[in-house]
Amino acid sequence: MANFFTRLIDKFLGEPQIDWDEMEADLIAADIGAKRVLPLIEELRERDEHDAREIAAFIRGQLRSAFPAQLPQLPQPKDGRPCVLLLVGVNGAGKTTTGAKLGYALQRQGRKVLLA
């Protein structure tokens, strides 16, 4: 996501007028989601903000505050039974990477992991 903000700043830096429709499209294309993007763009328009660095900092702050500071705990297996996690998402959403990271974290906790 850091590269996204760098590209966003580079794209709009020095522009005398921000193209809010283009920025909205860029944010939605970055999989932030229209439900979050539309209020962000509306607030930026109301603020009349034109500095790309300030815009990126504002968006980054809003996105960070939308997520919990601490992630929820993984489910614990009961009575020696396996614990099954199902990862669902569209192509390119990061299911494989997330599964590998979860598997590694569970292995470090001394658990046996099977990825299928």
From TrEMBL:
Transmembrane regions listed in the UniProt entry: none
Keywords for the protein's UniProt record, in alphabetical order: GTP-binding, Membrane, Nucleotide-binding, Receptor
Keyword GTP-binding set for record: yes
Membrane topology per record: Peripheral membrane protein
InterPro entries, per database record: P-loop_NTPase, SRP/SRP_N, SRP54_GTPase_dom, SRP54_N_sf
Record-annotated SRP54-type proteins GTP-binding domain positions: 83-116
A Pfam family that the UniProt record links to this protein: SRP54
Keyword Transcription regulation: no
Gene Ontology biological process terms, A to Z: SRP-dependent cotranslational protein targeting to membrane
Location in the cell: Cell membrane
GO terms under cellular component: plasma membrane
One Gene Ontology term of the molecular function aspect: GTP binding
PANTHER family listed in its UniProt record: SIGNAL RECOGNITION PARTICLE RECEPTOR SUBUNIT ALPHA (PTHR43134:SF1)
Family of the protein in this entry: Belongs to the GTP-binding SRP family.
Protein name: Signal recognition particle-docking protein FtsY
Organism of this sequence: Candidatus Akkermansia intestinigallinarum
